[in-house]
Design a protein that fits this description.
The protein has helices at about 1-10, 10-70, 90-100, 130-140, 165-175, 200-235, 240-360, 370-400, 410-425, 445-460, 520-530; strands spanning about 75, 85, 105-110, 145-150, 155-165, 190-200, 405-410, 430-435, 440, 470-475, 480-485, 535-540, 545-550. With about 550 residues, the protein is an alpha+beta fold. The strands form 4 sheets. The protein has a 5-stranded mixed sheet. Strands 3-6-5-4 form a 4-stranded antiparallel sheet, sandwiched between helices. Helix 2 (about 10-70) packs across helix 3, helix 2 packs antiparallel against helix 6 and helix 8 (about 370-400) packs parallel to helix 11 (about 520-530). The longest helix has about 120 residues, at about 240-360.
Length: about 550
């Protein structure tokens, strides 16, 4: 009964069987295409990961460990440093970027839940694939983990292999100051290497290789329908139609074979490209090795130069120790001299001044005007000498005083000093211009002495001006503020400017402008102790300006 149904519906049965065969062939070819895309994608990703792992292992054992014994450290950021080399992880990340440079969509990343040394913004698991890969590698770190995903409208392969801690790396990672852990163990997974590999190009190649087969299938369908139409319409020509179909089928198979040969040729070309890429990578590794060897030679030369420099520094330190001892002895002698001046000279001077005053008071009726004048000149000279001794002792004390720096309101201090001068000399009318909100970091007592001397000189040397003017402000000088005190007083000849800051050096007569001649020397010593500079400009009769930095 079943055979009779088959015979009665032979065309239908054959058509169904043919359709099932076509569907089976289509499914098989689709599966073959998917397997081909998967295999080629995995092969490309595996080549990248194997190359990076071999380079990193070689770099760790042959470069980092050898240079570590020579004092060269590995760091996550070596910009501008001559004594550091990249960490293996840093080298892997940088080399991965260079390998995929110019390959759109391809990425090579070193992923870890721990922050990278020197690159704190690049650590952590950022998406579901990375977190899932990390969990898988905790259980089976020896196997690769991959998955196909859509990335910006492109199908890509995300392929990851575990980064396990090797025996030669454990000690270095546990001892490195920037390591996120101190208890690394051999075989522990610290991260993984991820390769993002676009598969759309491979899919296009596979679809192009199979398009001929699909065309052949469509042609077979048309031939089948045409053949069976001819069988139905012209039963008497069945034999001829079958021969024609056989011929057409043979031709189609030949076309299919040609397409397969073309596909095989394209695959061989892809393999050749991969081999060329591997050769280029080996060439780059060799070039990098030669560069590292040259850098190693430079480091050895630098180490030897540093040793020589250390020897020179030790010799200089010995000389400095001797000079320090000599300076200590000189300071002790100066202290003894200051003590002698303070105690041994003051008493005779007080006696001269006191006896001179007593003679003037007790024997005034017995002295003529010339005698009184002589005694007054003796008193004035002894008092001037006492002032000189006080100025000399003050200069020595300021030179030895300890500097205690703090933030100072320079504008407020200048206003206070000028107010004191005005109270001591209320009859004078002086225009005082003080810049506002000027601050500095220095010793308040010493800087007040500087300002009192400079402003005191300006106040003194403008006393003969009808419209006296004193100004305090600042100007930029070599990237830092330069404070200045300016007046329109007597001024000075720049020819003798080199004498301004010497002790007991005067450019004006004592009778015209009184003073002991150590004020500017004191200012110069204080500015030097603050690490600054002081200089002056002026002209006779037009005033002077003193600049200083701190």
């Amino acid at each position: 009964m079943g055979l009779e149904v088959v015979h009665r519906h032979t065309v239908l049965v054959l058509t169904v069987l043919f359709g099932m065969c076509l569907l089976t062939i289509y499914l098989h070819m689709s599966q073959l295409r998917a397997q081909m895309v998967t295999a080629m994608s995995l092969q490309g990703a595996e080549i990248y990961t194997r190359a990076l792992e071999e380079i990193r292992q070689w770099y760790t054992t042959e470069v980092v460990q050898r240079l570590h014994g020579q004092g060269v450290v590995a760091s996550g950021d070596v910009a501008g440093s001559k004594n550091e080399i990249p960490l293996p992880a840093t080298l892997s990340m940088d080399l991965g970027k260079k390998l995929v440079a110019g390959q759109p969509g391809q990425e090579i990343r070193l992923i870890s839940p721990y922050p990278f040394p020197g690159r704190r913004d690049q650590g952590g698991l950022t998406d579901f694939f990375q977190r899932e890969a990390w969990e898988v590698f905790q259980e089976t770190p020896e196997k690769a983990y991959f998955r196909f995903e859509q990335d910006h409208g492109r199908k890509v392969l995300r392929y990851a292999t575990a980064d396990r801690m090797e025996a030669e790396c454990v000690d270095c990672h546990n001892a490195h100051p920037a390591s996120p852990k101190r208890n690394w163990q051999v075989g522990e997974v610290g991260g993984f290497l991820e390769v993002v590999y676009p598969v759309d190009t491979i899919q296009e190649m596979a679809e192009g290789g199979l398009s001929g087969a699909y065309g052949s299938m469509g042609l077979l369908v048309l031939l089948w329908l045409g053949g069976f139409g001819l069988v139905i319409l012209k039963l008497n020509r069945v034999a001829g139609d079958l021969e024609e179909q056989v011929r057409c089928r043979t031709s189609d198979l030949q076309h299919a074979n040609e397409h397969l040969e073309l596909e095989i040729s394209e695959r061989q070309q892809a393999e050749d490209l991969l081999r060329q890429a591997r050769d280029n990578l080996e060439k780059r590794v060799q070039e990098r090795t030669s560069k590292l060897a040259a850098a190693n030679a430079d480091l050895i030369r630098e180490v030897s130069e540093r040793k020589r420099a250390e020897d020179d520094i030790r010799k200089l330190n010995g000389q400095l120790v001797q000079q320090t001892a000599q300076l200590t002895a000189s300071n002790k002698e100066l202290e003894a001299f200051s003590y002698s001046v303070s105690h041994d000279l003051r008493a005779p001077l007080r006696g001269i001044d006191g006896f001179s005053q007593a003679v003037l008071e007790d024997y005034a009726d017995k002295l003529d005007d010339a005698g009184k004048s002589y005694l007054q000149r003796v008193r004035a000279a002894s008092q001037r000498m006492s002032q000189l001794i006080d100025a000399m002792l003050n200069l020595a004390r300021l030179t030895r005083a300890e500097i205690r720096s703090q933030t100072l309101d320079m504008s407020g201090m200048v206003n206070a000093i000028l107010d004191d001068f005005q109270k001591m000399d209320p009859e004078r009318q002086v225009e005082c211009v003080v810049a506002k909100n000027l601050f500095a970091t220095a010793d308040p007592q010493l800087i007040r002495a500087v300002l009192e001397n400079l402003l005191g000189n300006a106040w003194k040397f403008t006393r003969h001006r009808e419209h006296a003017r004193i100004e305090f402000g600042y100007e930029p000088y070599k990237g830092q503020p330069a404070y200045f005190v300016k007046d329109n007083g007597a001024g000075f000849d720049m020819t003798y400017a080199h004498k301004l800051f010497g002790a007991f050096q005067r450019l004006h007569a004592y009778t015209e402008y009184p003073g002991v001649g150590v004020g500017l020397a004191t200012v110069h010593r204080i500015i030097q102790r603050h690490g600054g500079q002081i200089w002056a400009d002026g002209s006779v009769g037009e005033g002077a300006i003193f600049h200083f930095t701190l």
